[in-house]
């Protein structure tokens, strides 16, 4: 009898739980293309998964997320910059395409504040943007919108000022100081301070499966100059940068220069299509980790395009060189390396005699 009562009680509790209100975030919108694949992924540990959304024949899509907490997420639509959304319990959001841009209409109070701040910052200089963001964070030190605006200042401004970056950072309060991005930024700064020279540090250890199902590691690129490129098919600027950098391939032998091209794509079809259509040389990686790729984290890449040059001893010798300077820079590096190797060979020959 007691066993029967226990089972009945458990069933009743389950029924109550199932009939309780489930908080849902509802997202809908329209793109210009039918059967588009769209990706939604959380930007912190509150939502560590990626959702795939497919549009219908008219380009319309709908998506729901069951959530009891608010969190930031990126919506990635092909040929568009990532759209920041604040996923909030019981909120709705509609994505509307206006020309080449997308706008968000949402019932989320956080989304409204974020969008109004982005509008305010749209036509300001880099320094003016930094001052507006600093003012916002000063007023609301616990509002995580400040984190998003701070990161976008660093990523989107061509020359973000170190003073402005830290002025904003130092205004964050309480739990925001434990935000993943803040912690990562501080660790990187601490690491930079602990080094007497940011150059000539070792290429971080890695193992990637590149296009063609071949594995590459640090050792793969020993004894040659390596250019590491970070890019994405959805970012036209980084695609053009990648083409210009890898065009150097035709000027050197395979044992002199190599390319490791790491994509931030989630859409592997778009990634393959881009590198195949333009026959872009080099080893290509698309591990679907985007900004969480280990080398992207190690190099503290905050924007694309981004490149690093590694010498034949697997030491970093240049970070993000200007594309206009790259041909002469590589040429001088390769020539100097050849001369150095000749001198070493002469010394070895003398010792043998």
SSE topology sketch:
Blueprint: H1 2-19, E1 24-30, E2 37-42, E3 50-54, E4 60-66, E5 71-76, E6 83-87, E7 92-98, E8 101-106, H2 109-121, H3 126-139, H4 145-156, H5 162-169, H6 180-194, E9 207-210, E10 214-217, E11 225-231, H7 236-246, E12 257-263, H8 268-277, E13 283-285, H9 294-298, E14 306-310, E15 316-319, H10 326-352
Parallel strand pairs: 1-7, 11-12, 12-13
Antiparallel strand pairs: 1-4, 2-3, 2-5, 5-6, 7-8, 9-10, 11-14, 14-15
Helix pairs in contact: 3-4, 3-5
Please give a structural write-up.
The protein is α+β, with helices and mostly antiparallel strands and 353 residues long. It folds into three domains: 24-107, Carboxypeptidase-like, regulatory domain (Immunoglobulin-like, Sandwich), CATH 2.60.40; 124-194, no CATH class; 207-343, 3-Layer(aba) Sandwich (Glutaredoxin). It has helices at residues 2-19, 109-121, 126-139, 145-156, 162-169, 180-194, 236-246, 268-277, 294-298, 326-352, and strands at residues 24-30, 37-42, 50-54, 60-66, 71-76, 83-87, 92-98, 101-106, 207-210, 214-217, 225-231, 257-263, 283-285, 306-310, 316-319. Strands 13-12-11-14-15 form a five-stranded mixed beta sheet, with helices on one face. The protein has a four-stranded mixed beta sheet with strand order 4-1-7-8. The chain is globular, with a radius of gyration of 25 Å.
């Amino acid at each position: 009898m007691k066993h029967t009562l226990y089972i009945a009680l458990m069933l009743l509790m389950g029924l109550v739980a199932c009939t309780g209100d489930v908080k849902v975030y509802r997202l809908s919108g329209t793109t210009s293309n039918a059967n588009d694949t769209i990706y939604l992924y959380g930007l912190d540990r509150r939502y560590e998964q990626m959702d795939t959304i497919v549009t219908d024949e008219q380009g319309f899509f709908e998506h729901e997320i069951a959530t009891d907490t608010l969190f930031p997420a990126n919506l990635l639509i092909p040929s568009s910059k990532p759209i920041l959304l604040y996923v909030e319990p019981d909120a709705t959001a509609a994505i509307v395409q206006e020309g080449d841009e997308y706008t968000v209409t949402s019932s989320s109070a956080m989304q409204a504040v974020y969008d109004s701040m982005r509008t305010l910052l749209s036509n300001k200089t880099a320094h003016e943007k930094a001052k507006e963001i600093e003012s916002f964070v000063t007023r609301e030190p616990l509002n995580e919108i400040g984190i998003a605006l701070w990161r976008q200042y660093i990523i989107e401004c061509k020359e973000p000022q170190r003073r402005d970056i830290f002025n904003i950072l130092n205004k964050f309060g309480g739990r925001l100081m434990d935000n993943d991005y803040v912690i990562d930024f501080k660790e990187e700064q601490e690491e930079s301070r602990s080094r007497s020279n940011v150059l000539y540090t070792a290429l971080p250890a890695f193992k990637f499966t590149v296009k063609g199902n071949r594995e590459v590691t640090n050792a793969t690129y020993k004894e040659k100059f390596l250019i590491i490129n970070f890019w994405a098919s959805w970012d036209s600027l980084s695609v053009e940068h990648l083409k210009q950098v890898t065009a150097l391939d035709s000027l050197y032998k395979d044992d002199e220069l190599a390319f490791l091209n790491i994509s931030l794509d989630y859409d592997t079809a778009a990634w393959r299509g881009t590198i195949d259509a333009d026959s872009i040389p080099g080893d290509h990686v698309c591990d679907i980790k985007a900004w969480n790729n280990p080398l992207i984290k190690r190099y503290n890449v905050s924007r694309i395009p981004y490149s690093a040059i590694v010498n034949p001893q697997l030491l970093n010798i240049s970070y993000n060189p200007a594309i206009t300077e790259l041909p002469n820079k590589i040429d001088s590096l390769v020539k100097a390396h050849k001369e150095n190797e000749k001198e070493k060979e002469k010394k070895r020959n003398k010792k043998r005699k």
